[in-house]
Known about the structure:
By secondary structure, the chain is α+β, with helices and mostly antiparallel strands.
Amino acid sequence: xxxxxxxxxxxxxxxxxxxxxxxxxxxxxxxxxxxxxxxxxxxxxxxxxxxxxxxxxxxxxxxx
Length: 64
């Protein structure tokens, strides 16, 4: 995830990826001050994933 987060730029050199995450069946991990995260995704336990995704999506949708 660091590769995507840190190396994708637009034509003028500005970083365009503000947040990157992966879903996996493990524990929550946060890197780079929350800009890169590993989110726990277990079938039947969607509440924990939703708890983290809602604020991330709300923030992404309100940033202009």
